[in-house]
Amino acid sequence: MKKDLRYYWQRLGTLAIFVLLMIIMGIFSPQYFLSRNNIIQIFLQSSINVLIAIGVFFPILIAGIDLSVGSVLGLTGMVSALLMANGWDMWLALLVGGVLLGAFLGLLNGTLVVATKLHPFIITLGSNMIFRGLTLTISDARPVYNLPRQFSRTIAGYVGAIPVPVIIAISVAIIFAFVTKKTKLGRGIYALGGNEEAAWLSGINTKLLKVVVFVFSGLCAGMAGIVMTARMGAAEPLAGTGYESYAIASAIIGGTSFFGGIGNIFGVVVGALIIGLINNALNILNVQTYMQQIVMGLLIVGSVTLDRLLARGSKGE
Amino acid sequence: MRQPLVEMENVSKTFGATRALDNVSMTIWPGEVHVLLGENGAGKSTLMKILSGVYQPSDGVIRVNGQVVERLNPKTAQEAGIAIIHQELSIINEISIAENIFLGRLPGNRGLFDRKTLEKMSAELLARVGLDMDPAWPAGVLKISQKQLVEIAKALSVGARVIVMDEPTSSLTPEEVEVLFKIINDLRKEGVGIVYISHKLEEIMEIGDRVTVLKDGTLVGSRPMDEEVTPELLVQMMVGSDLSSKYDTEDHSAVEVKSDKPITVKVEGLTRADGRCKDVSFEVREGEIVGFFGLVGSGRTEAMRALVGADPVSKGTVYLKGEAARISNPQAALKNGMGLIPEDRRHEGFCHNFPIWKNLTLPVIAKASKAGGLWGLVNARKERQAAAKVVEQLNVRCASIEQPITQLSGGNQQKVVLGKWLETDLDIFIFDEPTRGIDVGVKASIYDIIKDLARDGKSILVVSSELPELLALCHRLMVFREGTIVAEFPISKATKENVLYAATARINNQGVGVQ
Questions:
Q1: Domains in chain B, CATH or no CATH each
Q2: Which residues of A touch B369 (CB under 8 A)?
Q3: What are B329-358's pLDDT values in tens digits?
Q4: Which 3 state secondary structure label does DSSP give B211?
Q5: Rounded distance, CA A26 to CA A32, Å?
Q6: Minimum distance, in Å, between the CA of residue A25 and any CA atom of chain B
Q7: Are residues A105 and A55 in contact, defined by beta-carbon separation less than 8 angstroms?
Q8: Which residue of A has its CA nearest to B407?
Q9: Is B369's CB within 8 Å of A197's CB?
Q10: Nearest to residue B408, comparing CAs of B225, B419, A136?
Q11: Are B338 and B427 in contact (CB under 8 A)?
Q12: ipTM beyond 0.95?
């Protein structure tokens, strides 16, 4: 078959941008930027965004969206902290208050999307506010400290030189890459994203899979909530506010099509790393935080425009 | 002497190698309702598109009010007083009735529009079409029949002398049809020429002054609707006396299937939740090909979608091999050995993001997955092997199975959409318009595939609006009209005339052509 520009862009475009950025930074500030510590730092700072981005990738893959991931992070981080503060066993608190609660919130989103047939944008725009409101209510808008020492030491600790959040993010990425590539579930989700009606008539249970993608999204945000709380040593009621935009940006920069059916986990992870890398680079170059936002915005618009232009070039319609 | 409004003389139109219209003439006089009749694909819409300036004729002359018009385009056609009211109405719900009528031609100057004048002019037009509504209201409040009247008002507002109405009654109640006919009669008295396209013979008998019949792009005849014209005559003109057409001479593998073969599908009283098909009952035997004919919108496709659980059902039972089956979604249908190959490839048939092989194995994966699709691994190597086999078996022309399906031609895409089901071990295949929009060569091979499946003992249901196709392919024919099955023919008793008659005429409901 004809391997055109789009073919390579889809598979390697994001990685190319990442490498290019690394080279540029390497030229600007070789001794600091390319140091082992700084590279580990980039991965560590990206780990939360990587987790959320992997989750939000799934609703985007079916041409939907999940705007509630930032609030899911806040609520799961808060609930697991409250459980621990109230004497629950740490692992049980993390499982129930973080992982399972996150999945459950995703289940709510997905069920509402299927039941109401409304666009996920509307449902998750609403649930985003609801989840944040719940977080503020149960915490009385105050941070929760006095968490068990063991918690931060484990979840925000290191294994050798590698930070645990990085290990968690990489493991989750590997698991979901496997799900998308090697399972019938993954194939079904791609089919649903490509053509819902064709998938439905081919016997794919599209209604169930629609719920599943939101469960994945909530699950990942729940794990991100745990990592967030562990890294800060406390649960902030406003933690994760606005994180959805970085997660969505990561997926898009990573080559996920907003029209559904196209994208992969590897791209999303690299997309999230690009955002982390740029933040890190701008810090090193002493660029104001406000400027960083402008750069980030330009990057999102630029990369998606490029993607669209290439898509138009090869579809021939 | 009166002058005709429009004369189209020896008009031809070719698209590439296809001759869509061949030497067709049609004259529209003031004050007449001119019925344009023909089967799907007879050339009616091509002719009307030429009249409205959408297409340029390859040959022939068009005269408007006696003047030869050289290059008609949509704008000059409108200026010449020709208006078309399409079956799909173009009313915008969110703006007012008055704004709809004068859309693009709002009165006023310097970028502001004069609401008072607009509403006064609109009120006059609405009075002419007998619609008692405040023109300031949003058009969304109107019923379909009223929207149609607004379309007529819109046509009158540009000073239309010829109004083409394409299937105007397809979604009207009998009472609303009466209202429309009254307006048509008023327009007729005002000297407007109406071109009336419809398949409903009793309506045509009532309203038509003259009828022009097209068949396969040629003119069958044009005659006044006098007392000699009967529904039977009209059907005969549409079908043509040419019984030796290429399909009919084809070897009829199809005699009836013996009644000792077991019944594989039995449908009793199938009714959709949205009412688009009601009380549909039929049965199909092993190795039998049953055709479902009906005009567009008669409920055939809707019934098939309901049968495989793709759309909600409110009533009815489906028996598969004698046992009542609960089929609430296509996955359940698939697990019960039944699959639907849909009519609209692009929107229902394939996933544009998949290469050929992933499209081909999708139902296999769906069928083999556990827990509603949540569990199970894919085996890309096995899938590719299976896909390569199907591609070879169906002779799909492609560079490789890795090729994106969007790069294939329509006919080859259709082969893939069809091939998807061959590896799933189905007992019952439902084909909806299996050969729409594909060329003759591929058509023949698709017929062969269908016949082979039947010979292997599969039960086949074929929905089509191409009657010759069904007559050549099927053992038995069912005819849909207005959401339900109105007639059944063994192939030996089915002719183009009686099947088409059953599909179009409301008269003589029961058992046309059946003993």
A1: 6-91+142-239 (3.40.50.300), 243-337+426-515 (3.40.50.300), 351-425 (no CATH)
A2: 184-185, 188
A3: 999 999 999 999 998 777 889 999 999 999
A4: strand
A5: 9
A6: 36
A7: no
A8: A315
A9: no
A10: B419
A11: yes
A12: no
